[in-house]
């Protein structure tokens, strides 16, 4: 074995030792005893030199002589079954890295009694089961990495004594089932990564042991069923990844226990529908920061998707708005009426085409969250009528819309100029009458024009123009300016 020693920049003492294993060594080899002469060492690393010889035990003899050690890294070894108290009494150890060591199991108290340990790396091993008591008395541990193992079973309470843990990495394993007790005691975890496992169902309150959880990654599992209470007790959850699963239907009020989500990825599933009752508990759904990905699903064109046409007018997040615009659905009935709408964007359809009846209960959004240009009367002005639909011709080249989905031209004017300036068809008609009146004045006898001029001069006007004050529709504004100008300079 060859060891390289590095000294401190300020003191002539060895602080870092990196050893390369070049042949098979017994646990009591003299090279391990040489550590006794280096009490100032704070970092030790053991790794293989080539593939022929690898360390097959934890060098406890060497570690016993390094009371100041703070970081220990062992890699490219063949440790197999990690015995109890393999790293006992390393009271200053803060980092323990055991990646890529062919570890097959952790005995009871295999990693225990490390009062200052903050980061534990156990990735790229061959662990199949995590037992209760394997990790014990690690009061300061905040980061635990178990990715790329072969984990199938996590015993209930396996993490119970890791109360300070903040990040738990379990990606690329073979975990098939989790229970309400799987994550018991993890009261400070903010991030859980279960990417690429074999989960098929999320049980009720399965993550309730982590009330501070903020980010949850469930991508690339085999999830086909989610209990309505699966996310119960997660008030801090803001990011949820569930893409690339086998979800077909989601239960109503699924997010009631996680109302503060701002990013939800449900893309690349097999969802047939997504009802308003499923998403209505998302309190941030109107926020500028909210985003939900729905692409790559198999939605059926029916009334259960009607809420999308309404929400696209309400959301303040441009990315989420674009996402909603591109949600497509398929008609189950291959009739002539729907044959030309195969793979239709939901926002291009109307309530009638989606099969909504008069009794259909349309969701009412909290009017405190509506845009300031939307009338505060439920969502009446944002609801498309049966003959109103989103026209893709109103999108510019970047996919931005130039009118709101489901809005008539009258509502578009109302949204642009406020309720006080646009009052619908009655004021438009009134404005047209005013134009006709002005045009008639141009044909009146000269004495009428003179009389009109004298009346305005008497009121303090000095221009000689016929000036009128009236309500008008913005669409007629340029025409009125032309007529008034002509009256002034004729």
Automatic annotation (TrEMBL):
InterPro entries per UniProt: Leu-rich_rpt, Leu-rich_rpt_typical-subtyp, LRFN, LRR_dom_sf
UniProt keywords, alphabetically: Glycoprotein, Leucine-rich repeat, Repeat, Signal
Record carries keyword Lyase: no
UniProt region (Disordered), positions on chain: 365-460
Pfam families documented for this protein: LRR_8
Compositional bias (Acidic residues): 388-399
Sequence ranges of Basic and acidic residues compositional bias: 423-435
This protein's record includes keyword Repeat: yes
Name the record gives this protein: Connectin
